[in-house]
Amino acid sequence: MALERPAAGRHYPTSTGELLTWFATDDDCRDYLEWLRWPDGFVCPRCAHRGGWRLGDGRFWCVSCDARSSVTAGTIFDKTRTPLTVWFMAAWLFSTQKDGVSAQSLQRSLEIGSYQTAWAMLHRLRSVLIRPGREQLAGLVEVDETFIGGEEPGLRGGRQRGKKTLVGVAVEVREPKGIGRCRMTILPDAAAASLNPFITANVEPGATVITDGWSGYAGIENLGYVRDRRSQRAARLRGEDPHALLPAVHRVASLAKRWLLGTHQGSVEPTHLQAYLDEFVFRFNRRTSRSRGLVFHRVLQLAVGHEPVRYADLVVESRPKRNPPAGRAGWGQPPSLERPPANRPWRVT
Ligand SMILES: [Zn+2]
Predict the structure, then answer these.
(1) How far is the CA of 60 from the centre of ligand 1 (A)?
(2) CA angle 35, 41, 44 (to 5 degrees)
(3) pLDDT digits (tens, 9 = 90+) for 107-118
(4) What's the gap in Å between 193 CA and the centre of ligand 1?
(5) For residue 130, how far is its CA from the centre of ligand 1 (angstroms)?
(6) What is the 43 CA–ligand 1 centroid distance (Å)?
(7) What is the 3-state secondary structure (H, E, C) of 222-271?
(8) DSSP, residue by residue, 6-49
(9) What letter would DSSP give residue 64?
(10) Omega prior to 188 cis, within 30 of 0
C-alpha cells in the first residue's frame, strides 16, 4: 500500500547532509526509486504482472512475460547516462531551493559535463510536475491574461500580441486578503475560444470567477460559473488603480516574471515557457510547505511515474544554447565527495 503520509527523516531526507548519507551510491538511489515506484513490490511494466525475480544486475525478471526491467525503465530516468546520485542531487536542489535552480547553476554545482545535459535534466524534472486529474481551483478565482517575455515584461500593454507570449492566469482568492493556488497557461489569443478552455480546465464548476470587463469572458456563465465582472473603466472613474481590480492575478504574474528574470535571467524561449510556468506554479502552490524534503520525495515519485522524456522531444523546436546565457554568476557549492556509509531509513520494517 502506498504511504499516505511520508515522514521526515524516515521517508525523505531533511537536509543535504542526510541526502548525501542516504544516497551515496546509484544502488541506494535505485533502491529508493524502487520503493517509490513499486511500494507493494515489483509490478512488470510490460504485462503488469505482480511479482518477479531480482537478477544479479539489479534488474527484475518477470515470470509471466519473461521481460527484464530496471526500476528506471519507462521513467524519466530511462537510459540516462548521468549517475542517479547526480540526478538525486539535482532533484534535491530543484526541490529545496526556494526559487529553484538554473541550468547554469546546476552544471556548476554538480560539475555536470555540459550545459545541455544540465538543461535537459531540469527540463525532464519540470515535465513531471503537472499531474493529470489534479484538483481544480475553487471558491473565488481571479482570471486574467498577461504578456510574458519580450523586452519589457510590463503587465498588460494592451491585448495585441507582439513578441511577448500571452498567458492566462487564474488565482484563488482567500478572504480577506490571502492568495491560494494558481495556474498559468499559454494562450493563443484572448478570444473566448481560448479563454473558455483555460477556465474549464483549471477552475471547478460553480466557482465565482472574477474578471475584468473584457468581452472574452462574457460566456462563462453558460459554462457553470458565477461571473464577478470588475470594470476597469469604472475603477478609473472612481480614481482607483485598474490593476488593483485583480490584485491576486497581478501579484502572481509579477512574481512569475520576477522569477523568470531572476533564477533564469529571462533566458526563457517561448517554446519552453510553458514548462517554466509549470515549475513556477508547482513552487508557488507549495510555497507554504514546511518541508522541502517532502517536495523532493514528491518530485521523485512523479518522476518514476512519468514516461520517458526524450531529448529530441525537448528540443523539437528550440535547442538549448551550447553555452549558458551570460548574466548573474551562479551560486552553490559542489557536494562533498566525503559521503558517510549508506543506510536505508525509508524502508519501513
Ligand atoms: Zn511481464
Answers:
(1) 10
(2) 105
(3) 999 999 899 999
(4) 45
(5) 28
(6) 8
(7) HHCCEEEECCHHHHHHCCCCHHHHCHHHHHHHHHHHHHHHHCCCCCCCHH
(8) --BTTTB-SSHHHHHHHTSSHHHHHHHHHHHH-TTS-B-TTT--
(9) T
(10) no
Neighbours of ion ligand 1 (CB under 5 A): 44, 46-47, 49, 62, 64-65, 67
Ligand 1 geometric centre to CA of 64 (Å): 5
> pLDDT digits over 118-141, tens only?
999 999 999 998 776 678 999 999
Q: Is the pLDDT of residue 90 over 70?
A: yes
Q: Ligand 1 center to residue 156 CA distance, Å?
A: 54
Kindly report, residue by residue over 291-341, the tens digit of the pLDDT.
Answer: 889 999 999 999 998 888 888 888 766 666 666 655 433 333 222 222 333
Q: Which cell numbers hold the place of 35?
A: 520503493
Q: Is this structure's pTM higher than 0.85?
A: no
pLDDT digits (tens, 9 = 90+) for 182-203: 999 999 999 999 999 999 999 9
pLDDT band for position 15 (50/70/90)?
A: very high
